[in-house]
Amino acid sequence: MEAGINQMSQARRLAAGKLRFFDAGIWLGRATGFPLAGELSPEAIASVLGRSFITGGLVSHWRGKTTSAQDGNLALQAALSNLPENVYTIWTGLPLYLAEPGPLPGQGAPPEKVRGVRVFPKSHNYPLAGWVIGSLCDWLIEHRLPLFIWHVELDWQSLYSLARQFPQLNIVVETQTQKILYHTRPLVALIRQCPNVLVEISNFVGAGFIEYAVEEFGAERLIFGSFQPINDPLVPIGMVIDAEISESEKAMIAGGNMRGLVDKVQP
Amino acid sequence: MNDPFIVDAHAHLGLPGVFFTPRSGPNHLLQLMDLLSIRFTVLGCDHTTLHEGAGTGLPALRRVHDESQGRIFYLGVFHPAHGPECLAALKESVAWPGFAGVKLHPSFHGTRADDPVYEEAWRFAAEHDLPILAHSWSVSAYNPVQRYSTPERFEAYARQFPQVRLVLGHAGGRGSGRHEAIRMANEYPNVYLDLAGDVFCYRLVETLAEAVPPEKILFGSDFPWIDPRANLSRVLLADIDDRLKRKILSDNAHTVYGIQAES
Lengths: 267, 263
Description:
A: alpha/beta, TIM Barrel, 8-stranded parallel β-sheet, B: alpha/beta
């Protein structure tokens, strides 16, 4: 039996290595709501990613949610010199009409290495609506930057309206920080009706979800994310490498789709 | 393809009304078992039985066992609101093929795990040399009923019935419950932990492997809530010895649930 285990392990190592995972969900800073989670330092990113078959990705900072958008963005700026070449950042955004002090995304060119913006409407107390964050959405579209949002930070009706109002804006619905499972009905309706909505898969783990999504919507709608170091990246990696889909579809989910979005960003 | 040898020690069947799932039936489960070299699965229950207790769904689960050619085993849910009815159904089914133990879900049933109402379920398990699989979790800010199932609430019964093998499903969850689950797995020879569900904590397999004896950890999925593929690779690719992987993926479940390889 140990031989079978070794064979299965080796096959997965090879598969994971070939897929060159690109992780949209790497987190620096101290997590809230996960008392047992460790903290990842910028200096440790390269070795930690390598251990989990991940070749690059997008890093965020918890402080952007817990303290303020600006503090999170400052922390990411400070970490830049320690980030591997193929690791980029997701800044936290706010509505632009208040002209709050920075650093914030939304004016001029995207800051160095920023390849996405995340909003926390519930935590930061504003509605997810075009009349509040429309200017930020316009700026994101201008620079072809995707908008990231945790599903626990949104209400589905508002996200549907926003996605319809800004059809050129790529919106990545992230499946943290609680089960997305209980929201699969609105999520599926949203993906079906809004071609600009993508789903990050760190917690997209219900039985057969990957095959269902690929068959119904196409592999181009799924983005690999791990939510590490809170979660184990081997969870979504296992979902992808054992999925009953083609190798090219696996490669798109593992990293091709997110790398494509990164490459599109306009200065 | 390997000969199937893995035991998924914690799964369910049926349509859970609270979310959409494209795959939840016995045929879906068997397809995944074949894909992943899973030889046997232990069903905590189906969703009807979880809601209504052992008196409702056990005949259907027996059919699932038969139709799976003995690969899918099942537990009987003791619902504290329907104690006498459940106990009667458990007694009737204890000798049925595929019947493998008792399931408790204090959070779902809104009754603390240390409530006296559960004593008859523990006594039944003790009298018939059966294991108990219990939902366990940590105190949760957004799901208050989880406080009914924190590991330490099972402790008095685990001590009172040392002959009953208690599996703390989900290994106590993602917070303080984990520490309690580890403490109990070390302190009580009859307490085990399973990996089922979305306990996706970073390097959990390695953490538990260092914290509890090797015979105390069981692989589980929580199908259809969670696809077995979510938890399988984290065991197969964990930085632990292959002999320990074998215990987690197979041997420990055979011991706890009394599953015979020739079944």
